[in-house]
Amino acid sequence: MKTDKLFYRLFLSQPSLIHELIPSIPSDCDFDYSDPVIKDTEFRLDGLLTPVSDDPNLPLVFLECQMQKDTEFYSRYFAEIFLYLNQYQIQRPWYGLLILQNRNHDLGSDIPYQFLLNNQVKRLYLEDLLPLSDLSPNLALLKLIIIKDTEAINLANSVLNMAKTETEFQRLFKLIQVILKSKFPQLTIEEVLAMFDLKTATVTDEPDIYEELVKRWQQRGEQKGRQEGLREGLREGEALLIVRQLNRRCGITPDLENQVRSLSESQLESLGDALLDFKSITDLENWLEQNVL
User: Fold this and answer.
1) The predicted structure's pLDDT at residue 200
2) Is 47 exposed, middle or buried (CB count within 10 Å of its CB: 0-12, 13-18, 19+)?
3) Are 14 and 141 in contact (CB under 8 A)?
4) What are phi and psi of 136, to 5 degrees?
5) Which residues, including other chains, have CB under 8 Å from residue 106's CB and lie 6 or more apart?
6) DSSP letter string, 200-251
7) Is 283 inside any structural domain?
């Protein structure tokens, strides 16, 4: 999975993360993702988050993740934004959000853009998260992407400990599973699951929910059954999230929804990446025709 799509998927799954980084945006503001082409140029926006709500006061968010040197990054980023605002005649406010690995990468001069960078564009340097321990689940997920491999499992368990409901637990675990698979591509899903000591992950304020989770896993028989039960719960949670995103992006019929819900875990993961490029229901139909036997 490409790193940038991993970030975009995280922001779509955890919309409150936008609020944490840009507090003036409401925490309950849901976004849709697109990567629009700017006509008559070679520019293409990496990620545009558009509010699902019709409220004209809610802003567009120009999200971009840059993990390496690019001496034309700032000039290109702002050129893309203002060309887009002009070509699409945008009538709502906007913010920029840059996810950057560290301050050592040369991204070109930021001097011409200081006013915008100080007032309208948020720069998050992931290296700043590394020494911090008291992080929200959202920021801890971002930290998990760049933390040392030897420290990843402890942080992942710490994030799970913050879950307050079974639904939140499953959503966080699914995101963690995707992140760990990107960090440890040589491992199978079973090996990733085996990295967790599930008995130590408690659900804050609602221990009965976690106890019920453990009971369900144990009922399927020792370690293998517990992993299978968790995988099925995660698969169902991933299907629900994808159906929700498809409804926002292009709408989905009951028949197509049933097809999506019946997909395997690997198919759902592939669809989760592919839907970021969907423009209409036809794209979904074509994807299902090409990827489902």
Assistant:
1) 44
2) buried
3) yes
4) -70, 165
5) 69, 70, 71
6) G---TT-HHHHHHHHHHHHHT-HHHHHHHHHHHHHHHHHHHHHHHHHHHHT-
7) no
Q: Three-state SS for 48?
A: strand
Between 94 and 235, the more confident residue is 94
Q: What is the mean pLDDT of the segment spanning 281-292?
A: 85
Between 66 and 178, name the one with better pLDDT.
66
Q: Is the pLDDT of residue 207 over 50?
A: no
Dihedral angle over CA of 46, 100, 143, 214, nearest 10: 0
Q: Which domain holds residue 19?
A: 1-146
What is the pLDDT at residue 199?
44
Sheet strands (E) in the chain: 31-34, 47-51, 60-66, 94-100, 121-125
Structural domain includes residue 92: yes
Q: Are 62 and 99 in contact (CB under 8 A)?
A: no
What's the Cα-to-Cα distance from 102 to each of 66, 70, 269, rounded to whole Å? 9, 13, 29
CA dist 171 and 195 (Å) reads 18
Using alpha carbons only, what angle is made at residue 114 by residues 135 and 30, rounded to the nearest 5 degrees? 45
98 - beta bridge partners?
A: 64, 123
Looking at the chain, the whole-number percentage of residues with pLDDT higher than 90 is 29
- The answer to whether residues 140 and 159 touch, using CB atoms and an 8 Å cutoff, is yes
- Please report the pLDDT score of residue 242 as a whole number: 80
With H, G, I as helix, E, B as strand and everything else as coil, classify residue 146: helix
pLDDT at 276: 75
8 Å CB contact between 163 and 176: no
The one-character DSSP state at 14 is -
Q: What domain count does the chain have?
A: 1
Counting residues of the chain whose pLDDT is more than 70, the rounded percentage is 81
pLDDT at 175 over 50: yes
Q: Count CB atoms within 10 A of the CB of residue 201.
A: 21
The predicted model gives 208-236 an average pLDDT of 51
